[in-house]
Specification:
With 551 residues, this protein is of the alpha+beta class. The chain has helices at 16-34, 36-55, 347-368, 371-377, 381-417, 427-455, 458-477, 483-492, 524-548; strands spanning 62-63, 66-67, 84-113, 142-143, 151-157, 166-172, 177-181, 185-188, 200-207, 210-216, 223-229, 236-244, 248-254, 257-263, 265-280, 286-290, 306-311, 314-319, 322-325, 337-338, 421-422. It is built from 9 helices and 21 strands.
């Protein structure tokens, strides 16, 4: 009797590489979570982010009304939801429907105080020269000069409410002619200063929600500078002439800190050949100081100095303040401001703890001789390194994410309680700051892990990471070096990754102290990319050495 055996039925096999890497991940995770000291250190690092950021960072504001909440003053909000400074002197008429305004500008002069001035009573503009001097540049005790972003020109504005939509054609003290609209948009026109020998012609036209700006050197040949679409512009808008000038910011740096002293400035623009077309009331010009800078009691027509005078065809307008986004360190607004990342200063100390854990996660097996067992049990040394990087990156990311998600909203509440106005940001920006902080910590941990594999000694790895990340950060944010040197350090070292926490962008048209630690020289994602580049390079070196060296 014979029998035949059927061949066994083939069953799909799990891909070996995927199965092996999955086992490696589980094994590395088990090593990490079963060593309670590492888990505790990660929790301590996360706790440091919140403890230091929320309880050690305080800046309570004092004012005539008291301190803390009593000093809180909100800033106007622009059409894009950002906080803005909207302070200037406005000589206006209502314009119903479509129309245009054209002027010739023959001079722009300025003045700033030699010392912080005492509060002055505002003067109301009229067709009759005011009792106070129209040009404060003639007053004693100051300097006759325009600021680079002193501005005077023509403007179409939705209303006199600070923060309302607008478009303006303006001559500046140092940046030529510009078209600016809705606070964040700025387009260059003619270059060069305005003067009697080289006047500049400016024009704005309105067609529905669209405002177009033009400039000309002779009033005959016009060049379009830009077109602005102001969504929801009302049927009747305010049109006219304006002048404004940001404060002068003098920054004094010393080891361990810096101080900034601000003083006011004014700008005076001289106009003639003023031509309005469209449906105006014909009631003549009305002068009004628009005060929207967060100063206590700020209100339209309230606190901003300014005036205008008219002599025949000529109109001279003097104003102070700025029409621009509000940013940290700005000199034109007396309102104390804060950013959502201000209470993330504990990330620096928490990061030190977490990168030490990451370095030890790589070097502990070398110190105990267990790395031979690991590499024997798990062939494929590249996968072993990848599994370790995934585990330590995920653990530190999760811990930092929870800590940042607590520090940002709670810190914003504390800042408001201390009297500071927290500059609003969009939802995606806030999410980028929180998630970006967690990514910053995770990538630094992976970098520390790679350094640990390269050096194979815990103390040496920790020292290398401190020198590579912590020391450059300290050199960059502590004013012990010139600003240019500090910015260079924060461009080319792993500390550039801290730029991911910055929520308020730089604006070229805003006078502010754009220096670390408030501002990093690279954009958030560019700075983070520099850090990722260092981590990727360290992992590549670690991979090559892990394959070539004996365990």
């Amino acid at each position: 009797m014979t029998s035949t055996l059927s061949p066994p039925v083939a069953t799909p096999a799990e891909p070996r590489g995927r199965s092996t890497f999955g086992r490696m991940l589980r094994a590395e995770w088990t090593k990490f979570r079963t060593l309670r000291g590492w888990v505790l250190a990660v929790l301590i690092g996360a706790a440091l982010i919140d403890v230091v950021g929320l309880f050690a960072v305080h800046s309570t504001i004092s004012c005539d009304q008291g301190s803390g909440k009593a000093c809180y003053q909100p800033l106007p909000t622009g059409p894009g939801g950002q906080a803005v400074t909207d302070s200037f002197y406005f000589v206006r008429q209502p314009l119903a429907g479509d129309g245009a305004i054209t002027v010739r500008m023959t001079s722009l002069t300025g003045h700033y105080s030699a010392a912080p001035p005492a509060p002055a009573e505002p003067s109301a503009g009229s067709a009759v020269p005011p009792a106070t001097p129209a040009d404060p540049g003639q007053q004693a005790g100051g300097v006759d000069a325009t600021q680079p972003w002193s501005k005077a020109g023509i403007i179409i504005k939705a209303s006199t409410t600070p923060g309302s939509a607008y478009a303006a054609m303006t001559a500046t003290g140092g940046h030529g002619t510009r078209m600016q609209w809705n606070f964040t948009h700025d387009v260059a026109g003619l270059a060069g200063p305005v003067a009697a020998a080289s006047p500049q012609w400016l024009r704005l036209t309105r067609a529905g929600d669209t405002v177009t700006g033009y400039d000309s050197a002779d009033g005959v040949t016009w060049t379009k500078v830009a077109t602005a679409h102001l969504a929801g512009l009302p049927a009747t808008v305010q049109v006219g002439l304006f002048a404004t000038s940001p404060g002068v910011l003098v920054v004094t740096e010393s080891f361990g800190g810096s101080s900034a002293t601000g003083t006011s400035s004014t700008a005076t623009g001289t106009f003639d050949h003023v031509l309005l077309s469209g449906a105006t009331t014909g009631a003549g010009w009305t002068g009004e100081a628009i005060a929207g800078d967060g100063a206590p009691g700020a209100r339209p027509g309230g606190d901003q100095p300014g005036s205008y005078e008219r002599a025949g065809d000529q109109i001279r307008v003097t104003g102070s303040g700025d029409i621009a986004p509000a940013v940290p360190g700005v000199s034109s607004s007396p309102a104390p401001t804060a950013a959502i990342e201000d209470h993330l200063q504990g990330v620096f100390l928490g990061l030190i703890t977490l990168v030490v854990v990451a370095a030890m996660f790589a070097t502990a097996e070398y110190r105990r001789g267990l790395v031979r067992v690991t590499l024997a049990a798990m062939p494929g040394r590249g996968r072993v390194l990848a599994a370790k990087a995934v585990v330590i990156g995920a653990a530190t990311f999760a811990a930092a994410l929870v800590a940042a998600a607590i520090a940002v909203p709670v810190g914003a509440r504390l800042s408001r309680d201390e009297g500071s106005y927290v500059l609003p940001v969009s939802g995606p920006t806030e999410a980028r700051v929180i998630v970006g902080t967690a990514l910053l910590v995770a990538v630094c941990a992976v970098l520390a892990l790679a350094v640990g594999v390269i050096l194979r000694r815990g103390a040496a790895a920790v020292a290398a990471v401190v020198v590579g990340i912590v020391l450059p950060y300290l050199l960059g944010v502590v004013p012990a070096l010139p600003v240019e040197a500090r910015e260079w350090v924060l461009r080319v070292t792993p500390a550039a990754g801290f730029a991911i926490e910055q929520s308020i962008p730089r604006y070229a048209q805003v006078t502010a102290e754009y220096s670390p630690p408030a501002y990093f020289p690279l954009s958030p994602w560019a700075g983070f990319a520099v850090l990722c580049g260092y981590a990727a390079a360290a992992l590549a070196v670690a991979y090559v050495l892990l394959r070539r060296r004996d365990a």
